[in-house]
């Protein structure tokens, strides 16, 4: 199970890559393994306002459905158009081609307090078994 | 000291194999079972196009033997078991006195006085207890043999080609719903041509000690045929496509068999009383309060167990099982609908535009389709 060290994480199994004032968001390797084969992703719309900790989409797999919680506050600037055609990208490459959406941070570049480092996230997933 | 009550789920004779294969394991009915090995969609597709290997050792096996075994089963179950020829198997039900279903079963007749009843893992203990009670006063012995069996299923169009060279049984003579003693890889088994996938295939009842060697032999023999190990997730989507009921979803203590489309499994013509007979006769006479219907989703969001079904925006039923269908490429579901809605949907060519499923607050269009969703090519 991979947990790239340069990313930030939430307890709801999302990752964030920070580029200046833009955050790219996806779900983690741990999450995609737990879900199984992803068949459909419901993404927020471009221009939508998202709020940290609030659900903003859904990931649907063979056996279950999970909410996607926005890890950050801001406005959605881009969504991954490839995901609609090929939801399996989330399983195959959750940190790369399986990215979900990008947010212009309301804070202008700071992530919310309480986001986890790679080490903290790894600990969390180990505890969960 | 560890807590003896925290023993955790039971291991099957093959759990170590699943661990070595890196399967995602789950507690299913108190057994540690493989949910998937790689991708449940790939495993599902392999069963439809080549073959899959399943560990079903969690299922319950109950032997019913003796001079009155057939009569005891005729009384205990809805089917006509005395009419079953040795070497044949029958899908049947065990009902409560009020006609509700306690489990669905396959009964194998191994001899005149020798039957093997296979029950769902979650109901095995209950079925054993009920059979023992219902056989009381008859010359029949009811024995829980679950611990004495491992069960491996080999399912898919390549199953016969894989198994043929390994068995002394003549597979061309082993018809669907037949089962008899045989050897596989020189080991004694009960070999049955039954399954829960809608494909050709076999269920191999073996000694627990033979389970790992048999799995290894079948894996090796299947390598050139595209055989893969397949877990419970694939098992569920395969049976759903095949329109097969799952106890706890389509079947349960408050659902009479007729509503699940299983009226043919209740044999009122057999001589003698059977448990639930009067209640079932009344239910048959009164007509169904709901009708089991197949649904195909017209959007990508999947109808799931418990979701409401809408006809012209009004509630008309509930989904019992739903999943994305790898073979059909759309979400499929089974649902109990009010008879009038079911009839109107069927009359209206599936009800496109009028039928919908409430998927977590949004009405997703669906159409009614006849079951099964999938039939294997002839």
Tell me about this structure.
The complex is a heterodimer of chains A (129) and B (378). Chain A is an alpha+beta fold. Chain A has a 6-stranded antiparallel β-sheet with strand order 1-2-3-9-8-5. In chain A, strands 4-6-7 form a 3-stranded antiparallel β-sheet. Chain A has a single domain, classed as RNA polymerase II/Efflux pump adaptor protein, barrel-sandwich hybrid domain (OB fold (Dihydrolipoamide Acetyltransferase, E2P), Beta Barrel), CATH 2.40.50. Chain A has helices spanning 29-35, 82-85, 89-92, 118-128, and strands at residues 8-9, 14-19, 22-27, 38-42, 49-50, 55-61, 65-69, 74-79, 101-105. In chain A, a hairpin with a 2-residue loop joins strand 2 (14-19) and strand 3 (22-27). Chain A is globular and about 35 Å long. Chain B is an alpha+beta fold and 378 residues long. Chain B folds into 3 domains: 4-52 and 149-241, Gyrase A, domain 2 (2-Layer Sandwich); 60-147, Alpha-Beta Plaits; 290-378, Aminomethyltransferase beta-barrel domains (Elongation Factor Tu (Ef-tu), domain 3, Beta Barrel), CATH 2.40.30. Helices cover 21% and strands 31% of the residues of chain B. In chain B, a hairpin with an 8-residue loop joins strand 11 (187-192) and strand 12. In chain B, helix 2 (40-49) packs across helix 7. Chain B is globular, with a radius of gyration of 21 Å. The A-B interface holds A 33, 36-37, 39-40, 42, 58, 60, 62-63, 65, 91 and B 24, 35-36, 39-41, 233, 236-237, 300-302, 304, 323-324, 360.
What is the element layout, followed by pairings?
The complex is a heterodimer of chains A (129) and B (378).
Chain A: E1 8-9, E2 14-19, E3 22-27, H1 29-35, E4 38-42, E5 49-50, E6 55-61, E7 65-69, E8 74-79, H2 82-85, H3 89-92, E9 101-105, H4 118-128
Antiparallel strand pairs in A: 1-2, 2-3, 3-9, 4-6, 5-8, 6-7, 8-9
Chain B: H1 15-20, E1 24-28, E2 31-36, H2 40-49, E3 51-55, E4 60-65, H3 69-76, E5 89-95, E6 101-111, E7 114-119, H4 124-134, E8 141-144, E9 150-155, H5 159-163, E10 179-184, E11 187-192, E12 201-206, H6 211-222, E13 227-229, H7 232-241, H8 277-286, E14 291-297, E15 308-311, E16 314-324, E17 331-337, H9 339-347, E18 355-359, E19 362-369
Parallel strand pairs in B: 3-13
Antiparallel strand pairs in B: 1-2, 3-9, 4-7, 4-8, 5-6, 6-7, 9-12, 10-11, 11-12, 14-17, 14-19, 15-16, 15-18, 16-17, 18-19
Helix pairs in contact in B: 2-7
């Amino acid at each position: 199970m991979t947990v790239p060290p340069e990313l930030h994480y939430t307890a709801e199994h999302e990752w964030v890559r920070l580029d200046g004032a833009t955050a790219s968001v996806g779900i983690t390797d741990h999450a995609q393994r737990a879900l199984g084969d992803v068949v459909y992703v419901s993404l927020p719309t471009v221009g939508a306002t998202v709020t940290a900790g609030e659900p903003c989409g859904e990931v649907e797999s063979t056996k279950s459905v999970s909410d996607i919680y926005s890890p950050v506050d801001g406005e959605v600037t881009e969504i991954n158009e490839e995901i609609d055609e090929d939801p399996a990208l989330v399983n195959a490459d959750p940190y790369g081609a399986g990215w979900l959406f990008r947010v212009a941070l309301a804070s202008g570049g700071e992530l919310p307090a309480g986001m986890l480092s790679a080490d903290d996230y790894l600990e969390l997933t180990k505890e969960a078994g | 000291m560890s807590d003896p009550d925290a023993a955790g789920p039971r291991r099957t004779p093959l759990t170590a194999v699943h661990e070595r294969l890196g399967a995602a394991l789950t507690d299913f009915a108190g057994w540690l079972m493989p949910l998937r090995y790689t991708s449940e969609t790939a495993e599902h597709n392999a069963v439809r196009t080549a073959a899959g290997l399943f560990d079903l050792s969690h299922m319950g096996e109950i032997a019913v033997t003796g001079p009155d075994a057939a009569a005891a089963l005729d009384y205990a179950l809805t089917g006509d078991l005395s009419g079953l020829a040795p070497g044949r198997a029958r899908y049947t039900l065990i009902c409560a006195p009020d006609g509700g279903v306690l489990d669905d079963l396959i009964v194998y007749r191994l001899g005149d006085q020798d039957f093997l009843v296979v029950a769902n893992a979650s109901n095995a203990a209950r079925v054993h207890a009920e059979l023992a009670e219902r056989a009381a006063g008859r010359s029949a012995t009811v024995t829980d043999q679950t611990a004495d069996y491992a069960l491996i299923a080999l399912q898919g169009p390549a199953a016969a080609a894989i198994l043929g060279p390994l068995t002394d049984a003549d597979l061309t003579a082993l018809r669907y719903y037949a089962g008899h003693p045989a050897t596989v890889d020189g080991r004694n088994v009960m070999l049955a041509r039954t399954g829960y996938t809608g494909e050709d295939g076999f269920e191999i009842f073996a000694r627990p000690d033979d389970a790992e060697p048999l799995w290894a032999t079948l894996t090796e023999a299947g390598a050139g045929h595209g055989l893969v190990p397949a877990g419970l997730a694939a098992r569920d989507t395969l049976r759903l496509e095949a329109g097969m009921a799952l106890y706890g979803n389509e079947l349960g203590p408050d659902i009479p068999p007729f509503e699940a489309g299983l009226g043919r499994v209740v044999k009122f013509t057999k001589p003698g009383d059977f448990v639930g007979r009067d209640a079932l006769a009344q239910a048959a006479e009164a007509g169904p309060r709901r009708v089991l219907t197949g649904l195909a989703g017209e959007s990508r969001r999947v109808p799931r167990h418990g979701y409401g079904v809408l006809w012209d925006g009004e509630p008309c039923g509930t989904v019992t099982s739903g999943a994305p269908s790898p073979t059909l490429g759309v979400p499929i579901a089974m649902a109990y609908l009010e008879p009038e809605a079911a009839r109107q949907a069927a009359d209206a060519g599936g009800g496109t535009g009028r039928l919908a499923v409430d998927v977590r607050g949004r009405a997703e269009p669906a159409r009614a389709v006849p079951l099964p969703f999938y039939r294997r090519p002839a």
